[in-house]
Amino acid sequence: MLTPAEATAYEAPRRALKGMLPSADGVGQAENENIDRGTGVMRVKGQLRSSWIVDPPDGRIPWRAEARTRLNVDRPPPAIPLDNPEDQNGATRCLATVAAGAPMTAAPDANLMQIVQAGDEVAILSEKYHDARIVRLWRPGQPRPAALPASWLGDGIGRWEGATLVVETAGFRDAVVDRGQHLYRAPTTRVVERFTRTGEDELTYEFTVQDAALYTQPWRAEAAWRRQTGRIFEYACHEGNYSLGGMLAGARRAER
């Protein structure tokens, strides 16, 4: 947790620059796009938090040494081949984002969420990449829904525990999917999320990630979602698709 003085020192430059901090060499996307990371420190359960992660206590993802090395967690990723569109990561292809799927963490922009329950299903729509998760509800004592085929967003089964919606998600597609900021999912990953209304305009979001192939222990995080007004607009992600063609064309030109 942060002290009020530490939070003020952290927030001051971001408020002055509307959340955008310059890079060390003055070059980069952060100065050229409408990045919307916010300017304040997140307050969860009345506390000024320095990290989403609350377990392990150091606030860091507990990587296995082998996975940390294999996934280049501590180093810039190696150059990605430009032979095929499929070589590119999920974000470049507009197929995977930290703001959608399980768990949901903050993206550089487009962080609105809309949650709707209809009958025995809950839909969670993320503004980023306009992904919609369909969570099938299950009542203990009844047959558990059959598993669905593997997918980018996984197969989410939800149940109510009092006023908390608990969603267990597995069945991610057969690949280690990098969703940016070193957040990965794989077929071995299982995520348990908890959604609890903790105020008229607040929802507390908690999740636990389990994957013995990637982590030395399960890790848990907490965040606070605030009610927003206004519409969610379409996020077509055309820029990534346009630039992908340019990247491949540039590679062919370089080869020639």
Write the layout of secondary structure elements.
Blueprint: H1 4-16, E1 43-44, E2 47-48, E3 53-55, H2 65-70, E4 113-118, E5 121-126, E6 132-137, E7 155-161, E8 164-170, E9 177-178, E10 184-185, E11 190-199, E12 202-210, E13 219-226, H3 238-255
Helical content class: 10-25%
Q: How is the biggest beta sheet arranged?
A: 9 strands, mixed
Number of domains: 1
Q: What is the CA-CA span between the terminal residues? A: 55 Å
- Percent strand equals 25-35%
Instruction: Count helical runs.
Output: 3
Order of helices and strands: HEEEHEEEEEEEEEEH
- According to DSSP, the number of beta strands is 13
- Ranges with pLDDT <50 over ≥5 residues? none
**How much is the radius of gyration in Å?**
20 Å
Mean pLDDT: 85
Q: How does this model look, in words?
A:
14% of the residues lie in helices and 27% in strands. By secondary structure, the protein is of the alpha+beta class. It has one domain (63-255). The strands form three sheets. The protein has a nine-stranded mixed sheet with strand order 3-13-12-11-8-7-6-5-4, with no helix packed on it.
Offer a few descriptive terms:
256 residues, 3 helices
In short:
The protein has one domain (63-255).
